[in-house]
Amino acid sequence: MPDAIVPSVLNSYVRDWNMSPGLEHDGFVFMTGFTGSNENGHLSSDPREQFEHAFEKVRLVLEEAGLGFEHIVEMTSYHVGLREHLELFKEVRAATVSEPYPAWTAIEVAGFVRDGAVVELRCIARRT
């Protein structure tokens, strides 16, 4: 049976959306896609801040599971305006992940549920 991973600051995912921020099954942690709003729900117009907040949510789920960024095996990032901010996203990502780097796919999308969001970040981690 999968185990939900719900850091307290992400309780709204369960309460408002009926989804777990993370779900562990057979040593893998599958994460919900995280947009770049801060813990108060504010969504900055600055892409860098959005990227940093999305990675922060991933960190919260990893820590709740007793893991770190080194446990991420796959990352998918969805972007509005991918070409305009890919280099900036790569900078923020490079400051977070380390070798061996996770597999990564970046995808351009038309938009997200939340107006103004420019990124959604989804990761899979594995216990070693």
From TrEMBL:
This is RutC family protein YjgH. It comes from the Bacteria. GO terms for cellular component: cytosol. Belongs to the RutC family. It holds the Pfam family Ribonuc_L-PSP. CDD domains: YjgH_like. Gene3D superfamilies: RutC-like.
